[in-house]
C-alpha cells in the first residue's frame, strides 16, 4: 500500500514540475513576443500608455500604432478602446497630415488634455507630448527617419 501511495505522489510531483516549467517557458515566450512587437514601432508614430497597466480596471496594450486617422474612445468601434468611465464613446481623434500629427477633441464630456492643458481646437502633436484621456496618460512618440 505504501509503495502505491509513493508512486502516485512521485507522479504528481513530476506533473507539478512539468506544469511549472511550462509556465516559465510561456512567460519567456510572451516576453520575447512583446519585444518583437516593440520593434515594429520604430518606423511609425505611436502612443505609449504611461499608466501602470496592472493598476487599471480594464485591459489596455502598452503601445498603439497610429494610422492616418485614429479615433480613441470607450466604444468598441474606436481604433483605440479605453473602457474608462470618464472617456466618451468617441473621445478624440489623432490625424496624420503631410507627416505631422494633429489631435482634436470630439466634443467629449470630460475633455482631452495635451501636456496638462485642455484641447479646444485642433493642435499639432510634438514628440514627447502627453495626452490625458480620463485617467489614462498617453505619450506621443514620433519616429522620423
UniProtKB/TrEMBL annotation:
PANTHER family: NUCLEAR INHIBITOR OF PROTEIN PHOSPHATASE-1 (PTHR23308). The lineage of its organism: Bacteria, Bacillati, Bacillota, Tissierellia, Tissierellales. PROSITE patterns: FHA_DOMAIN. It holds the Pfam family FHA. This is FHA domain-containing protein. The keyword Metal-binding does not apply. The chain crosses the membrane at residues 12-29. It comes from Peptoniphilus equinus. Keywords: Membrane, Transmembrane, Transmembrane helix. It comes from the Bacteria. Residues 70-119 form the FHA domain.
